[in-house]
Specification:
Elements (H helix, E strand, L loop, with lengths): L1 H18 L9 H14 L1 E5 L10 E2 L2 E2 L8 H4 L4 H9 L9 H10 L4 E7 L16 H4 L6 H11 L3 E6 L25 H19 L5 E4 L8 H12 L6 E2 L12 E4 L13 E5 L17 H13 L3 E6 L9 H17 L17 E8 L2 E8 L8 E4 L7 E4 L5 E7 L2 E5 L11 E7 L10 E3 L5 E3 L17 E3 L5 E3 L2 H4 L1 H13 L2
Parallel strand pairs: 1-4, 1-10, 4-5, 5-6, 6-7, 8-9, 9-10
Antiparallel strand pairs: 2-3, 11-12, 12-17, 13-16, 14-15, 14-17, 15-16, 18-19, 20-21
The structure holds ligand FHN.
The site of ligand FHN has 8 residues, from loops.
């Protein structure tokens, strides 16, 4: 009997641990995938960096800031806390702030979630915190809870709401900053005490009093001074909203739900990271800086969204609102451009997964499975005027192919190099990306056809199907077009003996 009870107890505990759901828990991949589903479906969100620092434009009391990040000015210029409070905090009065206008602009742009700075490194809270009076309600003439108004509007217009919180470094609260880097004696204190009182206190407020929070976006985990404290408090806090997802920047040993890339568009993601997000500034600063007019073009922002979706990642596009609460005009221009494209082509982004192709010379691919059918979305940046487009290595039987815009039917022919799409209009449907959809019922197979063997046991490996793993002596191995529409590496037998060996190895071992 004891043995039975023991087995029952063990299996209950085992199941219970395995069944635990939520960030930082030992979830099964399936349970985590369920919790992350909205995030991977969303693909596109708005990051908002807003704070009292946006009033300064890289200059304070005659000192110039070299770092382009406006939100770092207090630390860069070692502004004394009392001066910052008196000359920066107390003047913050964004009378044009309209949370609904912000949310509707994000929604019209096709964004599915917003992540808002609730407290950045300067320690100033954009919400009415009972834990500290260094906040928008108690320390400025504005006296409104910006975070609450934004959270309510996200809820009203069905956008997910996330909170950015700088937990590891705080230049105001005693103990919040590394001792060696402090510049004001008022920063003196104990980091663990700061974390327990301020971080735990304020994040508890945010996860308790602001409705459904979908993302907790920790930041600058590298500045964490005690990993164990960060992990303990961080893992307790997320239990307040079991459905929320958390990024990987707590700074302890806990990994979080998704990896954040910043400012640099990755070519691909690390193999074991299923959930990834790129955050990117529109110009050079996360926060608004009047003189930072180095805005990325709307086309580049849209291309980044497509790039990220094609490698299975999310794109968190940053907005830095002005001191009066308005978005810069450049922001509206970019949001309008992207929103218009997504109105027609959103199906090729939302709910898609990464491209099955290693590389496409003329654009990107995303895919999704609908009713056991694979839909391949080809985002064509370099339009062809020939009316034809080759999808290399695709030999599957095609149910149908069409332009996503207007659903214009297209013809397809299978060729030794892949699928040839014909009947394309002379002009693309969009100046940056025109989407072609190819629907396939059978299991997608891009490996077939790599090597075609003939009766006399000769075989053909097309250069476009070869993944060159040898360093060519020149920048690129010239590919020569043969008379019969075939192609071959120029002089490959003599100049590149390794290549010949590689191909012979493929012939002998067939892979
Ligand atoms: O130091 C911050 C920076 O100001 C900004 O908030 C970015 C956004 O991801 N995070 C830190 C730099 O990695």
């Amino acid at each position: 009997m004891k043995k039975v009870l023991f087995i029952l107890l063990i299996s209950f505990v085992g199941l219970n641990i395995y069944a635990q759901k939520g960030a930082y828990q030992n979830e099964s991949e399936a349970t985590k995938a369920e919790r992350m589903q909205w995030f991977t479906d969303a693909r596109f969100g708005m990051f908002i960096h807003w704070g009292v620092y946006c009033q300064l434009d890289g200059e304070f009391n005659g000192k110039e800031q070299r770092d382009p990040k406006g939100e770092w000015i207090m630390q860069n210029l070692k502004i004394p806390i009392e001066d910052y409070k008196k000359e920066v905090v107390s003047t913050f009065n964004p009378t044009q702030f309209d949370a609904e206008k912000w949310v509707l602009a994000a929604k019209a742009a096709g964004m599915k979630y917003i992540v808002m700075t609730t407290k950045h490194h300067d320690g100033f809270a954009l919400f009415n915190s009972a834990v500290s009076d260094y906040d928008i309600f108690d320390a400025t003439p504005f006296k409104r809870d910006i975070v609450k108004e934004l959270a309510e509007m996200c809820n009203k217009h069905e956008l997910r709401f996330g909170i950015y919180y700088s937990q590891a470094q705080d230049w105001y609260q005693p103990g919040g900053y590394k001792p060696a880097k402090r510049w004001d004696k008022a920063q003196t204190g104990n980091w663990e005490t700061y974390f327990e009182k301020i971080v735990k206190g304020q994040v508890t407020e945010l996860l308790t009093d602001y409705g459904k929070i979908s993302i907790l976006w920790w930041d600058s985990g590298r500045a964490t001074q005690n990993k164990k404290v960060a992990d303990k408090i961080g893992s307790d806090l997320v239990k307040l909203q079991p459905e929320l997802i958390v990024n990987g920047r707590l700074g302890g040993a806990l990994q979080g739900d998704f990896k954040t890339y910043e400012q640099v568009i990755p070519a691909t993601f690390e193999k074991n990271n299923l959930y990834n997000e790129l955050c990117l500034t529109h110009n050079r600063s996360w926060s608004y800086r009047a003189s930072d007019t180095d805005y990325k073009s709307p086309e580049f922002i849209l291309e980044t969204l497509i790039n990220m979706a094609s490698i299975g990642g999310n794109f968190l596009f940053n907005v830095g609102p002005k001191p009066n609460g308005e978005f810069p005009k450049e922001t509206y221009e970019a949001l309008d451009y992207i929103g218009n494209w997504l109105k027609t082509n959103g199906e090729a982004i939302y709910g898609t997964s990464k491209s099955p192709f290693y590389r496409l010379d003329w654009g990107k691919c995303t895919q999704k499975t609908v009713d056991e059918k694979t839909k391949l979305y080809f985002h064509i940046f370099d339009w062809t005027s020939t009316g034809e487009l080759l999808i290399p290595k695709l030999w599957n039987k095609v149910d149908k192919a069409y332009l996503l815009d207007e659903k214009l039917a297209l013809k397809t022919t299978s060729t030794p190099k892949g699928l040839l799409i014909k009947g394309l209009p002379k002009a693309p449907k969009h100046d940056l990306a025109t989407v072609i959809v190819v629907e396939i019922s059978e299991e997608l197979n891009l490996n077939a056809g790599y090597i075609t063997t003939s009766k006399n046991q000769s075989f053909e490996l097309l250069p476009t199907n070869a993944l060159l793993t040898i360093k060519p002596q020149f920048d690129d191995i010239p590919v020569i077009a043969g008379e019969k529409g075939d192609e071959y590496f120029d002089n490959w037998k003599n100049k590149y003996p390794h290549l010949r060996f590689k191909i012979q190895a493929i012939k002998r071992y067939g892979k």
